[in-house]
């Protein structure tokens, strides 16, 4: 077991386990945390998993974990690793089962006072329009050819079919279509699982939330994003549903034989991987990219349904029920990028971000022109019923963390443990007493996401901002929560 005394304290927000900690480590393992969050991390296997990631072939610089770290499959959730694009590996466990789970932020031109009288009606319309729950089908029926087009074109498919605007794609990571996807590298079973799931929310920690901008910390950044105090916004948090889960399942199975063929020795079979520049590695990257495109199309169709819900519930009652997109960002994905670790020479790497968000700084050419001066938007949802955050990427994230930062609060209780301590009905009543409207299909599912099951998101955000890998823009306060 890893102990606190095993770490070297780099500064108040960054800790390191050197390569001497374990003889099989190829690079140091770094963790962003304050003293208390570090001690919390040591209560499960997440730090041990971080050490395991530092043994993968072809790593560049160091492996990282964000302060929302918790135990996952292979990699910890909150893990970041860069492998050399020529000599390194790609690991499905470094992306996760919910490929391109991410967050989209939408903004209205309305304030809280305008929406509150109609909030219950709006929440019901959102719940009705955006199907949620395990295995739930959506409103979109796809032929085999249409599904393949979704996998290779992502949100462009939604644009073609009238469910997106040009500016939605402009304000989406990769413009909603990541190149290199190949539908023929995806199994028939994965396609069957995903065929009827476009435009669905799913269950677990996925949600749609109507929020109010309750505080602004960076006037320049908020102005660039079109946010102001009291503005009503909407978060959509979901991913690639059963489709992405099956893609990961298929390749985790197939890679078991690949590691033997390539002579790769791992401390944990859940870290199963293949060289990126191998047939197996290239096939997985193409299939994972297809799942990422499926997720961007999914969030785009949900955006269309959110707009429909605003019109259905608010038309004729408020001055303007229109909804625009602020940005959409992934937090479970692998991408080939160029980085300068610790400010050194440029290296082309395969970036694994699992429960971690890309956070490119000002001047990045991949950002929309409107955001290039201030940096990339980052969305950090809190636990259900607590605050969420809007951050911006920084120059510091580009030199310290491969352009990455945290993605959420981070669990401290398993779903099973949470359900033993919280009744969903009691939680809903408390949230309603606190002024929130709740729409949920399952009281046990609600209990799984109780605030006590998560770390304090404000504390997590203070660490990444204190470390200089993000900066605060605004805090969001929930008004209505829609869950599966």
Describe the structure.
The strands form four sheets. Strands 7, 8, 9, 11, 15, 16, 18 and 19 form an eight-stranded mixed β-sheet that branches. Strand 15 and strand 16 (388-392) form a beta hairpin. The mean pLDDT is 95. The longest helix has 36 residues, at 279-314. It is globular, with a radius of gyration of 21 Å. The protein is built from 16 helices and 19 strands. It is an alpha+beta fold and 484 residues long.
Tag the structure with descriptive keywords.
484 residues, 19 strands, 16 helices, alpha+beta, single chain, eight-stranded mixed beta sheet
Helix and strand topology:
Blueprint: E1 8-11, E2 14-17, E3 29-32, H1 35-41, H2 46-53, E4 63-70, E5 77-84, E6 89-90, E7 102-111, H3 112-115, H4 119-129, H5 144-153, H6 155-160, H7 166-170, H8 188-194, E8 207-216, H9 219-225, E9 231-238, H10 241-261, E10 274-275, H11 279-314, E11 324-330, E12 332-339, E13 347-354, E14 357-358, E15 377-380, E16 388-392, H12 395-400, E17 404-405, H13 415-421, H14 424-433, E18 437-440, H15 443-448, H16 457-466, E19 471-483
Parallel strand pairs: 3-4, 18-19
Antiparallel strand pairs: 1-2, 2-3, 4-5, 5-13, 6-10, 7-9, 7-11, 8-9, 8-19, 12-13, 14-17, 15-16, 16-19
Helix pairs in contact: 4-11, 5-11, 8-10, 10-11
């Amino acid at each position: 077991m890893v102990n606190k005394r095993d770490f070297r304290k780099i500064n108040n927000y960054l800790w390191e386990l050197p390569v001497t900690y374990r003889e099989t480590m190829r690079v140091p393992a770094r963790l962003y945390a304050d003293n208390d969050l570090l001690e919390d991390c040591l209560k499960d296997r997440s730090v041990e998993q971080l050490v395991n990631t530092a043994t993968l072939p072809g790593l560049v610089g160091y492996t990282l974990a964000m302060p929302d770290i918790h135990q996952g499959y292979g990699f910890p959730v909150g893990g970041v690793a860069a492998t050399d694009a020529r000599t390194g590996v790609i690991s499905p466990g470094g992306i996760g089962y919910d490929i391109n789970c991410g967050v989209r932020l939408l903004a209205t031109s309305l304030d809280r006072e305008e929406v509150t009288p109609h909030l219950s009606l709006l929440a019901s319309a959102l719940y009705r329009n955006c199907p949620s729950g395990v295995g739930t089908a959506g409103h979109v029926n796809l032929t085999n050819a249409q599904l393949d087009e979704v996998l290779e074109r992502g949100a462009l498919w939604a644009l073609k079919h009238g469910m997106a605007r040009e500016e939605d794609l402009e304000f989406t990571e990769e413009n909603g279509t990541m190149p290199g996807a190949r539908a023929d590298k995806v199994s028939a079973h994965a396609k069957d699982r995903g065929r009827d799931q476009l435009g669905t929310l799913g269950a677990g920690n996925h949600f749609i939330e109507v929020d109010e901008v309750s505080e602004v910390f960076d006037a320049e950044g908020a102005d660039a994003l079109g946010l102001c105090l009291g503005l009503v916004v909407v978060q959509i948090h979901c991913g690639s549903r059963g489709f992405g889960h099956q893609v990961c399942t298929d390749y985790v199975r197939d890679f078991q034989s690949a590691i033997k063929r390539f002579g790769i020795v791992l401390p944990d079979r859940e870290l199963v991987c293949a060289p990126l520049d191998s047939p197996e590695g290239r096939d997985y990257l193409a299939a994972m990219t297809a799942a990422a495109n499926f997720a961007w199309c999914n969030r785009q169709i949900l955006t269309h349904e959110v707009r429909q819900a605003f019109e259905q519930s608010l038309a004729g009652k408020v001055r303007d029920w229109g909804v625009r997109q602020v940005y959409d960002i992934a937090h479970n994905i692998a991408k080939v990028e160029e980085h300068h670790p610790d400010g050194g020479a440029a290296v082309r790497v395969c970036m694994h971000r699992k429960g971690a968000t890309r956070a490119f700084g000002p001047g990045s050419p991949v950002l929309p022109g409107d955001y290039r001066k201030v940096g990339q938007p980052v969305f950090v949802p809190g636990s259900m019923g607590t605050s969420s955050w809007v951050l911006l990427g920084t120059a510091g994230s580009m030199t310290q963390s491969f352009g990455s930062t945290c993605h959420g609060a981070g669990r401290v209780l398993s779903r099973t443990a949470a359900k033993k301590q919280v009744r969903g009905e009691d939680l809903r009543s408390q949230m309603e007493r606190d002024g929130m409207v709740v729409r949920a299909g399952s009281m046990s599912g609600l209990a799984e996401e109780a605030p006590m099951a998560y770390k304090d998101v404000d504390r997590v955000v203070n660490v990444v901002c204190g470390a200089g890998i993000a900066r605060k823009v605004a805090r969001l306060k929930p008004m209505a929560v829609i869950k599966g």
